Amino acid sequence: MKIRIGVGLGAGGASDSATFAGAVQSMERLGFDSLWLSEVLTGAVVDPLAGLAFAGGVTKKLKLGTTMTVTGRNPIRMAKELATIDRFTNGRLLLVFVPGLTDRFEDQALGVPVAERGGWLDEVLPLVRRLWSEDQVSHVGQHFSYEGLSLMPRPLQQPLEVWLGGTARSALRRAGRLSDGWLPSLCTPAEAAAGRTAIQAAAAEVGRQVDPEHFGISMAYAHAEISPAQAARVAKRRPGLDPATLIPVGMAGARQMLERYVDVGFSKFVLRPGETPASWPAELEQLAEGVLPLQT
Q1: Is 17 part of any domain?
Q2: Which pLDDT tens digit goes with each residue over 184-227?
Q3: How many C-beta atoms surround the C-beta of residue 49 within 10 A?
Q4: Is residue 146 part of a domain?
Q5: Domain total in the chain
Q6: Does the residue 125 lie in any domain?
Q7: Helices in 179-249 by DSSP H: which ranges?
Q8: Is 253 part of a structural domain of the chain?
Q9: Residues near 38 by beta carbon (within 8 Å), at least 6 away in sequence
Q10: pTM listed for this prediction
């Protein structure tokens, strides 16, 4: 397997353009595979599309990834924005579509009930693929209807792959039916292995297979100890689970956890510091020393 390691840049990288540029340029210099920006509408993080476009202008090889909320977006505008970023960055865009966080502030911002969000993914993912590849697209769905639409420019990558996240049974089946890969978070290596099996089974049911190289994990890590804030975030999403089973402590712990995921067939990783680093360049130097020897 080709092991690739990227870094998730959270609120600490959003303070100003110089901090952001310095962080992403350090990632490229040190040899990380990719930068990742999550979409949180009501959080102190940069907009992922604006951030990736900016990052593409200050780097040359670093891949540019986002876990992007599809729910509530106009799919034509979204498809055009993503295609433009991919073309202008010479095919460096990486995509994971997500339905959005379940949070009272995010719920207000998205304006789409939680129960309806899976349906958006089911409709929008096949639709944007057609927009990226077909000369004219006609579509009649639950949320959108179009007749004879064309989209230009198209992505440089053909096809432009779209991965999915999520660990619920419905999310695993959707990933098997529709996705090019799977990037969940907050699941143990054993849970990840079971999810991979479920996804491939769902894919087989519809006559397809997800590339064995297209299974990854987004993983937070801690330094000296798991902070109360980190533990609280885990408790909110995985009540009753010991945070230590999900969040490794120290660089040695992070490397050991990655090796456990590799052992069950995962090879693409996004690492996220649990707390905002005092210095992103220093944080990245330490992280590179600890985990990049695994990258192949």
Answers
A1: no
A2: 999 999 999 999 999 999 999 999 999 999 999 999 999 989 99
A3: 17
A4: yes
A5: 1
A6: yes
A7: 189-205, 228-237
A8: no
A9: 8, 10, 45, 48, 66, 67
A10: 0.95
